[in-house]
Amino acid sequence: MLRHNRAATARLTIAASTAAAAVLTLTACGSGGPESDGTVTVWTVETQPERLAIQEAAMDAWAEDAGVETDLVPVEEDQVSQLLSAAALSGDEMPDVVNAISPGLVRSFDRDGYLDRDAAAEVVEALGADTFTPEALELTSDGDEVLAVPSDAWPMMVYYRTDLFEEAGLEPPTTYADLRAAAEELTTRGRYGITLSTDAADPFTQQTLEFLAQGNGCELVDDAGEATLDSPECTETIELYGDLASEFSPEGSQGVESTRSSYFAGQAAMTVWSSFLLDEMAGLREEFTPSCDECADDPGWLAENTGVVPVVEGPSSGGDAAGYVEFVSWGITDGADPETTDFVQYMMSDAYEDWLSMAPEGKVPVRTGTAESPTEYTDAWSELEIGVDSKKTFSDVWPAEVTDTLAAAPESADRWALPQGQGAILGPITSELPLAKAAADLGSGSIDAAQAQTTMQEAVSEIAARD
């Protein structure tokens, strides 16, 4: 699943032809069988120059001790699936491991036979399964079998203006009812109650819808792969989304840039966004800085007056509301060099803090520590510096309440289709975006909630029936 945050929108652009050329010129590695060729080849979707530098330094340090060469190949996230399939079909050499891949890609690659389950299990066992958050392992496994090594996570959250909520005597938006009431109360002349994505062509819109769905037990499919968006739980979710988008949010198509801008300018009292917004809101990235009236004299004012909610509980959740959290993983390929497992262990231990430091606000550790020090990595993560053009530690910018909420987000996570063993459907759902299209029509008022729900159900049913 494509990240709607700056990890996607501001990522270094690498043309498909360049990446394809990299595939064709890789040194022979995992596809040659279990024998080592002396080079561990890593495909990375973390392609910004500063992130590549951190990865290369960690790989060089491991290679020097291991006596093995490493080759880091940057590949854009929206190209990695196509390029891996092309390499497999053409007989070209495969990478030994691909990093930061989403749950949907993990399921897709496993279904196509690209992943080595035993190698992933070996890494998790060596590191200690109990040092990972259970949810990360559950959503990266097929039953009892680990498919990939979970690395880190980022949650979707509601960001809300604590000053406006306090003035209006409103409760934090932790339930459907409180979210709707706040959006209505805080929609006034010159300000909207909320801004959320309604762009039909943006995965961000589908992620926003799923974020709300997870809080109410609205599931995409059941264990048999049958579409379940016609459930009463999903009716409530779709109706809430429709109300928020059409009545209390800015008109027109809203996406990554506009929702961020509206909230940063003080034009909206709430927004739904990923955790990648945290450093930008603190005024640490010149390209995206708060522009509200109060922010002119104090760039940190908006951060000081913003609270976050990772789970919005719906009326039909039964007390089992969940949040939307994107887990990313190391996928070790079938036939990878035997040294690859040692390399991934290194990246998840000695180099783990360096890995998290690439973007701490969007890389919440899912390996919290070691057997000897259970909170070692979470503790270190909370003291890492965030920001791009300017840097400050989490604790210098955000109160412990926010960082604690962020650190705990993976513990309340769920995702569509994964617990049901139907994760492969996420690929076409995300690439074709039928849910985003229906949600966009609902937000614009061109269809009502009942029509949107029928359209979504039929689209998922059609995709599920293809196999």
UniProtKB/TrEMBL annotation:
One matching Pfam family, short form?
Answer: SBP_bac_1
Signal peptide as annotated in the record: 1-21
> What keyword terms does UniProt attach to this protein?
Signal, Transport
Asked whether the UniProt record includes Transport among its keywords, one would answer: yes
* Coiled coil spans: none
Indicate yes or no for the key word Plastid: no
Annotated InterPro entries: Bact_solute-bd_prot1, SBP
User: Could you say which protein family the record assigns here?
Assistant: Belongs to the bacterial solute-binding protein 1 family.
What protein name applies here? Bicyclomycin resistance protein
